[in-house]
């Protein structure tokens, strides 16, 4: 068993957000690590269904009725019958940090057989800087036993604030449907003991099943889009959020880390069901990726909200030509920011450029 800190890190500053349609028995395995923290459970699907939560956890549970009562007309921006509904939990949280996990993810073990405290590693990732402007070949230089290698510019060693910690998974890999179909028995058994910063200007496929972020730095951009019921696409919610977040982090000089910690992903979803959800996205992403690779945000965008509004306009202008869905998605992005600001009235000032970007010496 991994050692548990006598005083849990950030116990009063972090919420754990879990989207679900079932009883949360999986929390028993996580009890040693999660019990000190507040849980925000977002119930998807039928709001009349009773979701059972093991005793001893501090939690609040929100279903679709709660979403509609709180947001009114703006509830249209929160997806239904899709794990994208988790972003509602991000919106209602009042904590500085968020960790979100899926209910089919269990505690993994490291190569020595110890349980991995995924939450503790995420917190360590978030509390140490990122290095997006120059790649360190020993990966994260702020980890114990590592440092900046010879030739790394001293002017960049201060790093930038870390906004996102993206964890990985053992056992069932996060594959798309075509890959699932051709590799139905493949399992990820490789434990790579590394954390690295995703370089500036590089996109990545963000997975929401084991993810932590600084809500004050990047929260308004953590919108998981319009997916699921009534939408022509699914299973692109976390990736859409990741592309938006990365563009904004690059613009505001914030960092994104990926690697440790690992969780154990226990259940493979049906590849045929997944293909029905993904097939339009598989075609669309060949246009979506070049859009995000080339998009430039105006210098006047000095907060996450301003960046996100500008990005929504560009989505409507450029991607709206591909399919009317993207015009609807852009409107959802705008509605999301309106809802965020309405329920987090001081967040725009807290996330201003002067709190992150201006403090960092880029050696220019």
TrEMBL record:
Keywords: Cell wall biogenesis/degradation, Glycoprotein, Golgi apparatus, Isomerase. Glycans are attached at residue 150. Its EC number is 5.4.99.30. One of its GO terms (cellular component) is cytosol. Its main location: Golgi. SUPFAM superfamilies: Nucleotide-diphospho-sugar transferases. InterPro entries: Nucleotide-diphossugar_trans, RGP, RGP_fam. It catalyses: UDP-beta-L-arabinofuranose = UDP-beta-L-arabinopyranose. GO terms for molecular function: UDP-arabinopyranose mutase activity. Pfam families: RGP. The record marks 150, 157 as: Required for activity. One of its GO terms (biological process) is plant-type cell wall organization or biogenesis. It is found in: Golgi apparatus. Coiled coil: none annotated. Belongs to the RGP family. Probable UDP-L-arabinose mutase involved in the biosynthesis of cell wall non-cellulosic polysaccharides. This is UDP-arabinopyranose mutase.
């Amino acid at each position: 068993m991994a050692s548990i800190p006598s005083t849990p890190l950030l116990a009063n500053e972090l919420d754990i957000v879990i989207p679900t349609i079932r009883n949360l028995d999986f929390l028993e395995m996580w009890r040693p690590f999660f019990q000190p923290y507040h849980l925000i459970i977002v119930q998807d699907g039928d709001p009349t269904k009773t979701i059972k939560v093991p005793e001893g956890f501090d939690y609040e549970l929100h279903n679709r009725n709660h979403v509609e009562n709180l947001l009114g007309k703006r509830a249209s921006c929160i997806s239904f019958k899709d794990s994208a509904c988790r972003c509602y939990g991000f919106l209602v949280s009042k904590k500085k940090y968020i960790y979100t996990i899926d209910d089919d993810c269990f505690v993994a073990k490291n190569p020595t057989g110890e349980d991995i405290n995924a939450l503790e590693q995420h917190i360590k990732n978030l509390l140490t800087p990122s290095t997006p402007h120059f790649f360190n070949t020993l990966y994260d230089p702020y980890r114990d036993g590592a440092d900046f290698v010879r030739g790394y510019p001293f002017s960049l060693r201060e790093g930038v604030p870390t906004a996102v910690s993206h964890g990985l998974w053992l056992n069932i890999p996060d594959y798309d449907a075509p890959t699932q179909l051709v590799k139905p028995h493949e399992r990820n058994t490789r434990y790579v003991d590394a954390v690295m910063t995703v370089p500036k200007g590089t996109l990545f496929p963000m997975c929401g099943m084991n993810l932590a972020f600084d809500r004050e730095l990047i929260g308004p951009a953590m919108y998981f889009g319009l997916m699921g019921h009534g939408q022509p696409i699914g299973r692109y919610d976390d990736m859409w959020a990741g592309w938006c977040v990365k563009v904004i982090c690059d613009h505001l000089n914030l960092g994104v880390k990926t690697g440790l910690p690992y969780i154990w992903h226990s259940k493979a979803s049906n590849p045929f069901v997944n293909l029905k959800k993904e097939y339009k996205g598989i075609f669309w992403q060949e246009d979506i990726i070049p859009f995000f690779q080339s998009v430039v945000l105006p210098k006047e965008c000095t907060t996450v909200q301003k960046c996100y509004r500008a990005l929504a306009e560009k989505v409507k202008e450029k991607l709206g030509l591909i399919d009317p869905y993207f015009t609807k998605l852009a409107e959802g992005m705008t509605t999301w920011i309106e809802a965020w600001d309405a329920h987090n009235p001081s967040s725009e000032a807290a996330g201003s450029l002067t709190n992150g970007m201006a403090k960092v010496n880029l050696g220019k």
